[in-house]
Amino acid sequence: MASDITPPDFVYRLATGDEWVEAQASNVVPTRDIDKRDGYIHLSTREQALETANIHFASEQDLLALVIPYERVSALTKFELAPKRGKYFPHLYGALTVEHISRAIKLVRGGDGFSFGEEL
């Protein structure tokens, strides 16, 4: 982790409704092409999650934020600079399983983009 970053209580994995259903059936949250290419699973902090949703999932109609207590993945997670966004993001170097997830929050699309909705 970058030395000036305070570990958050939670990190988030954005997932479609279909990906969450698949994860619950297989016990493993599916990876995407970008995860496979980069060699880690892309996560966000709460502050980064909505911006990530608006940039990378703008056309998605069924989007969730999977809430992960950081302590459950801290040993496999590094905060690394995403140069295009100029921010440090949590990157998980390992599998993300359903046991890592504490809850799922529906992301709701509004006029200004996504916002956090109800817990599922």
Provide a descriptive summary of the structure in words.
The chain is an alpha+beta fold and 120 residues long. A four-stranded antiparallel sheet has the order 1-3-6-7. A three-stranded antiparallel sheet has the order 2-5-4. The chain is built from four helices and seven strands. It has one domain: Protein of unknown function DUF952 (ADP-ribosylation fold), CATH 3.20.170. 26% of the residues lie in helices and 36% in strands. The mean pLDDT is 94.
Short synopsis of the structure:
This protein is an alpha+beta fold and 120 residues long. It has helices at 17-26, 33-38, 46-56, 70-73; strands spanning 10-16, 41-42, 63-69, 77-82, 87-92, 103-110, 113-119.
Sketch the topology as an H/E string, one letter per element. EHHEHEHEEEE
What's the CATH H-level homologous superfamily? Protein of unknown function DUF952
What is the level-2 CATH architecture name?
A: Alpha-Beta Barrel
The total domain count is 1
CATH class group: Alpha Beta
Average pLDDT, all residues: 94
Could you name the ranges where pLDDT drops below 50 across 5 or more consecutive residues? none
Major sheet summary line: 4 strands, antiparallel
Query: Which value, in Å, is the CA radius of gyration?
Result: 14 Å
Into which percentage range does the β-strand content fall? Answer: 35-45%
Q: Helix/strand-derived class?
A: alpha+beta
Head-to-tail CA distance between termini: 31 Å
Q: Largest beta sheet: what is the strand line-up?
A: 1-3-6-7
Number of helices: 4
Overall outline:
globular
The amount of helix comes to 25-40%
Number of strands: 7
CATH topology: ADP-ribosylation fold
